Amino acid sequence: MTLNIGVIGTGAIGREHIRRCSQVLQNARVVALNDINRSNCEQIVRDFDLQAEIYDNAHDLITAPEVQAILVTSWGPTHEAFVLAAIQAGKAVFCEKPLAVTAQGCMNIVEAEMASGKKRVQVGFMRPYDSGYLALKSVLESGEIGEPLMLHCAHRNPEVGDAYTTDMAITDTLIHELDVLRWLLKEDYVSAQVIYPRKTRKASSHLKDPQIVLLETTKGTRIDVEIFVNCEYGYDIQCEVVGEAGIARLPEPMSVQTRRAARLSTGILTDWKKRFIDAYDVELQAFVNNVLSGNMTGPSAWDGYAAAVAADACVAAQRSGNIEPIAMPARPAFYD
Ligand code: NAI
Ligand code: ISE
């Protein structure tokens, strides 16, 4: 059986996901496209030789009879309305992060999904599908390094455009750590604080960069995450867990070591598309398989909500300079 997919938003990641649905994944086919910039869709139809209808209205794509599942890869503020419409139409929906730009927006989706009686939503948090994070989790669960006490993490991008604002360090960038660290530790967060080190001269005038986010979990585990989005040298994701009996680090992506001109060196990737290329393939194949089998298992609307609750507190902490509490309601049995 093949899943017929409609894609809303054909920019950077939309294009990547269309490529993988058409050329990499099994049992998936892109049959419909929408973007406020129609020429993006036309270009993609040409580039990937797609047999896909271009819709001028996203809501028409969502309700189109030939579309069985929706991928939402448009800008963050548009996600909530499209996901709600997909649930309303009784269709499965894969939504890129963030599920919605506020916790309340995510809760609206959680409530609509529960009312529909069936899990239909997967959020595009791909790191739980990354082989490195999976290996790190299996070390933690083996008990080899004892109970985790502290985590030291970094999320570095070489550069960002002028449209990137200080709160996007949380809502666009840290949101991945907020999800994956909760998954890794199986704990929620209880507080957040944000510290601003000396600013890099490479950042635009309105952007505070870098930032350090300090999180505390329910068991008292302390996490520091450096967000540095104009680090220049590469796209670099770090995670080190300090346990009672040892330390476990996220493995570096595979890279050939060279010895040349009196130097020993290994390359560092420069963009997220390549760093997580396998994880994106696996997460989307899981979505396709789960929709076809009727059993959704990926990052859920509740996970999207949990990350957004923590993100809201981090944004409040950016503004107040204080330690802000994070109050997570109990997870409904629907999401067990
Ligand atoms: P982008 O700006 O390259 O593409 C977004 C596309 O959505 C554009 O073509 C734009 O015209 C279209 N669009 C905007 N509003 C629309 C609307 N109302 N209806 C239809 N189309 C609309 O942005 P990018 O980088 O592709 O990001 C898209 C989303 O994916 C964001 O939420 C971003 O956070 C997420 N993302 C996730 C990544 C991950 O690692 N999981 C990596 C990159 C992006
Ligand atoms: C981007 O939107 C992503 O989601 C990438 O995975 C992340 O590393 C980057 O910081 C974001 O801007």
From TrEMBL:
Keyword tags: NAD, Oxidoreductase, Plasmid
Molecular functions per Gene Ontology: inositol 2-dehydrogenase (NAD+) activity; nucleotide binding
The UniProt record lists the keyword Oxidoreductase: yes
UniProt enzyme class: oxidoreductase
EC number: 1.1.1.18
Positions of the Gfo/Idh/MocA-like oxidoreductase C-terminal domain: 137-322
GO biological processes: inositol catabolic process
Reaction(s) catalysed by this chain's protein: myo-inositol + NAD(+) = scyllo-inosose + NADH + H(+)
Pfam families named in the record: GFO_IDH_MocA, GFO_IDH_MocA_C
InterPro entries recorded: Gfo-Idh-MocA_inositol_DH, Gfo/Idh/MocA-like_OxRdtase_C, Gfo/Idh/MocA-like_OxRdtase_N, MI/DCI_dehydrogenase, NAD(P)-bd_dom_sf
Span of domain Gfo/Idh/MocA-like oxidoreductase N-terminal: 3-125
Top-level taxon of the source organism: Bacteria
Oligomer and partners: Homotetramer.
Role description: Involved in the oxidation of myo-inositol (MI) to 2-keto-myo-inositol (2KMI or 2-inosose).
Stored HAMAP family: IolG
UniProt similarity note: Belongs to the Gfo/Idh/MocA family.
Protein name, as recorded: Inositol 2-dehydrogenase
Lineage start: Bacteria, Pseudomonadati, Pseudomonadota, Gammaproteobacteria, Enterobacterales
